[in-house]
Amino acid sequence: MVSRHDALAREPAASSNPVAVLRDFWQILRTGEFLGDLRVTLTELAAAFAIAASCGVVAGYLISRSQYRIRVFEPLFAGIYSVPIILFLPLYVLFFGLGPASKIALGATIGFFPIALNTIAGFGYVDRTLVVAARSMGASDLQLFRYVLLPAALPIILTGMRMGFTVALLSIIGSETIASLAGLGHRIVHLAEGMEMAPMFAYIAFVVAIAAILNTLVSALEARGRRR
Amino acid sequence: MTGEVAIRIRGVSHQFGEEGETRHVRALRDTSLEIARGELICLIGPSGCGKSTLLNIIGGLIAPTTGSVEVLGRRVAGPMPRDIAFVFQENALFPWNTVFENVNLGMIFQGVPRTEREARAWRALEAVGLKDFAQHYPAQLSGGMRQRAALARALSLETGILLMDEPFGALDEQTRMILGEDLSVLLARADKTIVFVTHSLGEATFLADRVAVFSARPGTIKKIIEVDEAHPRRPDFVTSAKFTAIRNELYALLHDEIRKTMAETSVSTLGGPAP
Asked: Is residue B238 part of a domain?
């Protein structure tokens, strides 16, 4: 702590000594002080994505079953998604409090849209000839879903899930910086408000690294799922 | 016409949409036909004359506006996977499955027991000459091979009736010729009733026992021509006088109908409903 107060006396608020940042970065990793906030953020992300994915796929499938529903809901979803939904965070905090629940709810809301839209696109635009051919050979509804609709739609749905994951992560970290009691975004803002620049940059670097790792993992999963 | 009747078409007509709607089309007009077991009948006619519509009605994919179809004595009310198999023009193979998996899947849909599927699949692939390509994906095959695979899938279902909707329509002339000859050989061995829709005069003359010539839309059968030549048809049948005479007759019957269709098309592009 002493070294940080010295640094504060010497450095202007907007910048920081890279050596000090690196030193704090290693210290954070070594002491494991990031674990608490990381766990909060990752838990929020996992819960938000689980909700967004399950609701998104189910809603997308149900909507895709009728042309009328597609024509109603697809533009509706696309329109809502183009609005910065993070602006509704104060409402979510009002309903769910400052804890993880509001972050999960917001992340799930935002992550829902790309998943639902891609699911609609995936199931709704399967080549009609494939469906007709399957029916002519005697496929039941369940067989049609399992052997025709699902494999046809899966690549597009996986892309939607990757997009949903990315926006959920962004919105969770973002909303943590605005109104939260814990989590990586919160930690960064807390440090900024305390004028502790070097550790703040260290945490920012840490969050960037985590986000990059997670996105790489998810993209790899998507590619594997598409490779068939 | 000898032999038992496999398909009985009685007074079938069909329209898409209701009168007054922009999409209203009278596709087929009062059509009746009896198809004998084991015969190969070609449906030929100008574009939009309803031959594909009739094929789909026979196969139970469309319910006709009027009239009825009986297959093997039973009224058609929907797809009959045990009795009727389709071969479509293209895009009917599942692109995420290999050729073998495609053939296998057809049998899963039909309900063939697991123990029989593999043997039947290999028999069908052998019959169409695709044994060495069983593990390939459709995208890795040429158009002709894809249609062979689609045919193998239909054959593996071991139905009595095969409905083929311009199966070689997307292929080049040479591939069509080869596949036509192979089909004739294959079908001489199997005892199947086949309804084959085509645009090609030569293909119809080469393959068919009878050719049903359709008029322009709304189509009905204008005339039925017999082709009295044993199966399998030898390649030199194409150069014979009999072949030429039949083909010429088809040309004479069709030419005016095609002109009528094209004239209607050019008029209706001036703001009428699309053909």
From this structure: yes
pLDDT in tens, A99-115: 999 999 999 999 999 99
The nearest CA of chain A is from the CA of B90 a distance in Å of 8
Q: Is the pTM of this model over 0.90?
A: no
CB contact under 8 A, B82 and A228: no
Q: What is the DSSP secondary-structure string of A90-132?
A: HHHHHHH-SSHHHHHHHHHHHHHHHHHHHHHHHHHT--HHHHH
Strands B25-36 and B5-16: antiparallel
User: Using CA atoms, how far apart are residues B145 and B178, in angstroms rounded to an integer?
Assistant: 11
* CATH no., domain A2-226: 1.10.3720.10
ipTM: 0.88
Say which of B92, B94, B111 has its CB closest to residue A138.
B111
Q: Do A137 and B94 touch (CB under 8 A)?
A: no
Count up the domains in chain B and report the number. Answer: 1
A41 pLDDT tier (thresholds 50, 70, 90): very high
* CB of B42 closer than 8 Å to CB of B204: yes
Contact B91 A127 (CB under 8 A): yes
Which chain A residues have a beta carbon less than 8 Å from that of B157?
Answer: 137
CA-nearest residue of chain A to B156?
Answer: A137
Containing structural domain, residue B222:
5-81+193-268
Determine, for residues B79 and A151 on separate chains, whether the beta-carbon distance falls below 8 Å.
no
Q: Does some domain include residue B240?
A: yes
List pLDDT tens digits, range B195-247. Answer: 999 999 999 999 999 999 999 888 899 999 999 998 888 999 999 999 999 99
